[in-house]
Structure formats: C-alpha cells, structure tokens
Amino acid sequence: MSAALRPHKVSKGTLLVVDDLPENLVVLTDFLEYEGFQILLAYDGKQALAMTEHLLPDLILLDVLMPELDGFEVCRYLKSQKDTKHIPIIFMTALSETIDKVNGFKLGAVDYITKPLQREEVLVRIRTQIDFHGIQQQLTQQNNFLKTEIEHRKQIEHSLQNTANLLAERTAQLEKRSIELQRRNDELDRFSSMVTHELRDPLGWVVTKIDTLLASYAFNRHLNESLREISYKAESMLDSIDALLSLASVLRANYIRVLPLDMLLILRNLIETRLAYLISGHQGKITLPDSLPLAKGHSVLVEEVWVNYLSNALKYSGEPDSIRVGATRGEEGMVHFWVRDQGKELSAKECESLFTPPIPLQDKFAKGHGLGLLIVRQIVEKLGGKVWIESKRGVGNTFYFSLPEAE
What's the CATH code of the domain at 106? Predict the structure, then answer.
C-alpha cells in the first residue's frame, strides 16, 4: 500500500493519518482536506514509521488496533526518536476502557478520539492540538532565545567584572605610583632646598670674593689669571646648579598655563639683560628678524629655552659674531623657531644625543654637560612641542624648537 499527498491551496497544517481500514482513510481525507489540511496516508504502523523518516507532519492521527505494529508500539517508537518525539499524536480507537486511554497518555499521546468518529469533534481536537503545539514551539524558541540572551549577558557581565577588576588593580597601582611620585617630589624639593643653601650660596660668596680680589690685585697678572680661572669654574658650577634646579621645577609641574608670546620682545629683552655679559665677553652678535610669529607658551620657561640655545651658540659656535635667529611655520599649526650658528658639523649620532640625559659633550662642541639642552627638551615637550637639530657642512648647526602657533 502507498501513501498519498493531496495538497490544498490554503494549508492549515500537515496531518499523517494512520489506519488499516481504507474506508476510514477515505472519509477522513475528504473531510480534512476540505477543512484546509494537507493529508499524508499510511495503511499500517510500519508504513507510518517509514514515512516519518523523511516527512515530519504537524500532527498524527493514529489508529490503536492495527496488525503487526499497533498504535501503542508506533507511538512508543516515535516518542523515543529525537526528530519525531515533539509531534503531537491523537489516538483513534473503539476502545473505551480507561486503562487503554491511560496507557496511551503514558506513551506520549496528547488526546483520544473514540470511534465512530464525529467530524466536529475530530476537527476541534485537531485544531486545538495544532494550535497548542504551535504555541509550545513559539515558547520553546523564545525560551531558547532567552537562554542565549542570558548566557550572552553573563558573558558580558563576566567581561565587565574582569574589566572592573583590572581597573581596580590599575587604580591601585596608579595610587601607589602617585604616592611614590609625591614622595620623590618631596625628596626633590628637599634636595633643591639643600642645593640652594648648601652649594649655591657658598659658590655665590666665592665668586663675589674673587671679584673683590681681582680688583685688589689687578697689577699681579699671574694671580689675576688664576683668579679668573677659579671664577670661571665657580660660575660654571653655579650655571649647572641653576640648570638642575630649573629641570627639577619643570619635571614637578603638573600644569603650565600658556599664553600668546611675542618672541621678538622676549629676545630683545634677553639680549639686553641676561645675555649682555656673555655677548660682550665673546664679542658676539645675534641677528634677529624683523618679525616672528606669535606662539603659545610660558614666558619664563621659553626664556630659558632661548637663553640655552643662544648661550651655547655664543660659547661653542667658534664664530659668535654670526648667530642668527628665525622661525618658519610648520604643519598642524606649529611654529618652528631656530638658532643658527657657524659651529663645526656634528655627526648624526651627536645630534641624537644632544637632548638626552646629561652626558659629557664632545670637546669639539662643548666642555660642559648637556643639562641645558636636556632642560630645553623637557620644557618644550611640556609646552606641547619638540626639539631637534640640523647640522650641515658649510651652513652650520641649526637648533630648533616648536610651539603651537597663537591664533
């Protein structure tokens, strides 16, 4: 015997009807197709099981009393299989004993229809079970979605907790580091105070006394030269101490207020005051342009940059009478200020090392330490710029520093 599928143009679901009596199948088929269902027919239990291996109906109408495999055995097998256990089964039987119905329900049936079949009853029970099964599937899908969502949220919560733990750990590390930095700043303050009182003041006294001796023994050329050499060494030590104190001040600063600066005004003032003695002593000449762009900075700190660049040029360029100052506009709103001298050409390695923590500079360039240039780098970087040097044979050495242009 074969199964037949009779499609309806508007399907309300697919039903598998299993009965060994052809006349029952004909009646059910005509009735149910008229009501809008697609019908699959099986004439015994074995054929029904074979069909469910390839087709999964929405509901099975299953006769209980059949040869070879009865409805109970077919139900038991279908409910044991993963793909078919969810299909609702309604038994059709002439058995009216309660024990038979109970056995059917225990096997997994959802309802019973007693023969002879009443069309309205059959239709109501089928629709009820299909609707109920549809609701179950929706609830299952929603439940699976909720489980997935819950798992996803658990993963997010776990990730957030890990992040919170990392942040807490990082915060603790930063607090510890902050305490350590504060401790070091306090030590630096104490060191600065000690340097000021224990070193700088006595050296200042020595320089003053030497100046007095120079005036008193001007007639003694040999003694005069020795005193001048001592005075020069003492002043160099004072410069180094001032450089260290300036560096400490820059490193401690957490915030620096910047304002538009008139660089020409700053330079002219420095040439007439702080650099005047050095310019006179080295017979130097600093050529300024007619104008310079306004830049954002801190006047006191920028003065230190200019003083370091210009004093180095006066001391070590070899031709202190040919020092030039200028500026060019760079990219991203920066102004590149520069000091150019006629000093000897520097190697790439020497250019790279000039702004690093203090090491003795080469004799051909300077006899002191690079504290001044280190301070320049620290100041300029604090102000949002950078420093560099270009050295070309026949052109000289050009020391640059950049600052944001003032609007």
Answer: 3.40.50.2300
Q: Check whether residue 247 and residue 276 sit in a common domain.
A: no
Domain span holding position 193: 148-252
**Does residue 155 sit in the same domain as residue 261?**
no
141 belongs to a structural domain: no
pLDDT tens for each residue of 29-67: 998 999 999 999 999 999 999 999 999 999 999 999 888
Position with higher pLDDT, 378 vs 267: 267
| Helix and strand totals (H; E) in the chain | 12, 13
pTM confidence score: 0.48
Q: Pick the more confident residue, 30 or 274.
A: 30
Q: CB pairs under 8 A, 24+ apart, for 202-210?
A: 203/234, 203/237, 203/238, 203/241, 204/238, 206/230, 206/234, 207/231, 207/234, 207/235, 207/238, 210/234
Residue 253 carries which side chain, given as an amino acid letter? A
pLDDT of 335 reads 97
Residue 96: pLDDT band by 50, 70, 90 thresholds?
low
- Is 130 a member of any domain? no
- Separation between Cα atoms, residue 287 and residue 281, nearest integer Å: 17
Q: Dihedral of the CA atoms 18, 22, 25, 29 (nearest 10)? A: 130
**Same domain, residue pair 379 and 308:** yes
Number of Cβ within 10 Å of residue 206's Cβ equals 17
Per residue in 304-328, pLDDT (tens digit) is: 899 999 988 888 877 767 899 999 9
The amino acid sitting at 139 is: L
β pairing state of 387-392 and 396-404 = antiparallel
One domain, residues 242 and 269: no
Nearest to 305 by CA among 379, 406, 384: 379
